[in-house]
Amino acid sequence: MNSYDFTLEMSVRDYECDMQGIVNNAVYQNYLEHARHECMKSVGIDFKRFTMMGIHFVVVRAEIDYKSALTSGDSFRVGLRLIKESRLRLVFYQDIHRIPDEKLVIKAKITATALNQQGRPELPTEVENVVRAHFAGA
Question: Residue 78's beta-bridge partner residues?
Answer without folding.
Answer: 8, 96
